Amino acid sequence: MNWILLLVGGLFEAIFAFSLSKISLTSGKEMYLWVLTFILSVSMSMLMLYKAIDNGVSVSVGYAVWSGLGATFTVLAGIFILKEPVSALKLLFLCTLIISIVGLNIISHK
C-alpha cells in the first residue's frame, strides 16, 4: 500500500511540474486554472509522501522513491506530451533511474 502511495505521489509531482510549465505559457483565466492545478497537485503529492512515511516507509527510501518517480513521470510527460527531444542518453539515464527506484524498493523489504 505504501508503494502505491509513493507511486500516486510521484504522479502528482509530475502534474505539478507540468503545471509550472503551463503557468509560464498562459495568461488570464487559463493561467489561474494551471495555478490551481499546481496547488492541488503539490498538496496531494506531499500528502501521499507523508502518508507513506507515516505508514512505515523510511524517510530516506520514501523520499528517494517519491522524487525518482516524480522525475521519471516528468521526463515521460516531457517526451510524450510536450514533444521534447529524445536521445539514447536520455533513455539510458531514465532506465538507470527506474532501476535505482526498483532497487531501493527491493532492499527496503529486507
Which secondary structure elements does this structure contain, and how are they paired or packed?
Blueprint (H helix, E strand, L loop, with lengths): L1 H24 L2 H27 L4 H22 L7 H21 L2
Written overview of the protein:
- The protein is flat, with a radius of gyration of 15 Å.
- The chain is an all-alpha fold.
- The chain has one domain.
- The longest helix has 27 residues.
- Helix 1 runs antiparallel to helix 2 and helix 1 crosses helix 3.
- The protein has four helices and no strands.
- 22% of the residues are buried.
Question: Which features would summarize this protein structure in a list?
Answer:
110 residues; flat
Brief summary of the model shown:
With 110 residues, the chain is mainly α. 85% of the residues lie in helices and 0% in strands.
